[in-house]
Amino acid sequence: MPKKENILVLDLGTYGIKGLAVQRIADRYEVVAYAMVRTRGMDWSGLKDVVALRESIESVIMELEDEMGRDFYQKVRICFSDSSYAVSMDTKEVVLDSENPVEITQEIQEELLNNLGKESAFETDPTLMLHIFPMQYVIDDVKVVVNPLELEAKKLAVEAFTATVSASRFNTMNQLISEFLPAVDNEFVVPSLAAGYVVTTEAERERGVFVLDFGHSFVNVLGFVNSIPVFHETVPIGFRYVIKDVSRVLNTSISEAERIITSKGFASMNPPDPSEIVEYYALDGRTRRATTLRELAIIIYARTREILNKARRVALEAFSSLSRVYSEGVPTSVVITGGGAKLPGLTDTATDVFKSFVRIGTANTGSHIPIEGPDEVINNSAYSAVIGALTVPTRAGMATPEKRRKKKRSSILDFFRELFGWE
Ligand SMILES: Nc1ncnc2c1ncn2[C@@H]1O[C@H](COP(=O)(O)OP(=O)(O)OP(=O)(O)O)[C@@H](O)[C@H]1O
Ligand SMILES: [Mg+2]
């Protein structure tokens, strides 16, 4: 890997397209420029207008190129919002030799991993695998290890969680993207997985944590147990419903509703200054109207609570269907990220709903390889997915800098795990 490289990262959300120009210097990233534009041509139901979406993406790339120069990047990481992402468990086995044990090489391991999720090609809506998270390997049906390399086996099996997306949705997006970035090898990642990795600490992922990516159209719920993402569920009710409610109840436009929510909104029943007056324009754009912080907070609270309740239900259902990891106990902490997490008061309501420890997550609150950059990006929960796209383990980068460093640190533990077959 070259010592230095420039990376373009894009997060195509249904509200905003976020772009970063990032420089990697050895095992450290620096965000050198960033841009965000409102998304056009794509919403909760998917791609609506290719021309409009292309223009939105182009304007983000142009903004970055204005600062960085044309074609500044050697590598591209992309995520796009979609309702078809899924995380599921899969197992695969390969017979290496029926007579004599064979030493397991990296090629053997990669071939085995590449076979994961293969049957999906016969389904009516095939899926495409974007990430693999191996849990453990089984050698000759008996010996369980976390790293099979250099061991000998006649038969090797893997148990892994895989993250997939609908192949047809992926192909449409990939085609569009390759029009802009034809000469570059584009790597796609799942946005909420990216966000999940960048906002959580290693200890949280190990102990078990629910991550909520509170976006405009979707709230994606991700569960980590034993340091691995074990489920991913999409609640199709995002922040746009909060905005809709405010616009309906106060009889104002969507843009005016959004303006007062983002400047004065509060997501719990107890805003700090409840009788403060909030002024806004009625639907005609001229008549001045007024409400109080408390009234505004009640409208926001009602919908937010409903969304969080759904997210909790989905998380617990997904978790209870995981027989294997269930013995570890339900995660007792929740991290909320995405643009919706910027709403003050959200942690109070979420703590009440989840009856757990809840915090807001940004790239600044997670453990990952060092990423430097402007505060508006690193401390901004709307940028979690786009920054996380740098740190999430991808298929192509099974040995990313983060992974290699981690491996080095836990090598003695790995050694004992292999020696004694610990899980
Ligand atoms: N300061 C703020 N306070 C409250 N909400 C905010 C704030 N800033 C942005 N939002 C809301 O967050 C949402 C955008 O979040 P985000 O950028 O994570 O969405 P997205 O990734 O485009 O959507 P999705 O992932 O659902 O496709 C919008 O609904 C916006 O109104
Ligand atoms: Mg998003």
Task: Explain what this protein looks like in three dimensions.
With 423 residues, this protein is α/β, with parallel strands linked by helices. Among the domains are: 86-166, Dna Ligase, domain 1 (2-Layer Sandwich), CATH 3.30.1490; 239-305, ATPase, substrate binding domain, subdomain 4 (Actin, Chain A, domain 4, Alpha-Beta Complex), CATH 3.90.640. It contains 14 helices and 21 strands. It has helices spanning 50-68, 106-114, 167-180, 191-199, 202-207, 239-249, 254-264, 293-320, 323-326, 346-354, 375-378, 384-391, 401-409, 411-420; strands spanning 4-12, 16-25, 28-38, 42-43, 46-47, 75-80, 86-95, 102-103, 127-139, 143-145, 152-153, 155-166, 186-188, 209-214, 219-225, 228-235, 277-281, 288-292, 333-337, 357-360, 371-372. The strands form 6 sheets. Strands 13-6-1-2-3-21 form a 6-stranded mixed beta sheet, sandwiched between helices. A 5-stranded mixed beta sheet has the order 16-15-14-19-20, with helices on both faces. Strands 7-12-9-10 form a 4-stranded antiparallel beta sheet. α6 crosses α7 (254-264). It is globular. Mean pLDDT is 90; it is low at 397-411. Magnesium ion is lined by residues 13, 81, 191, 213, 215, 338, 385. Adenosine-5'-triphosphate is lined by residues 13-16, 81, 215-218, 238-240, 258, 261-262, 338-340, 342-343, 382.
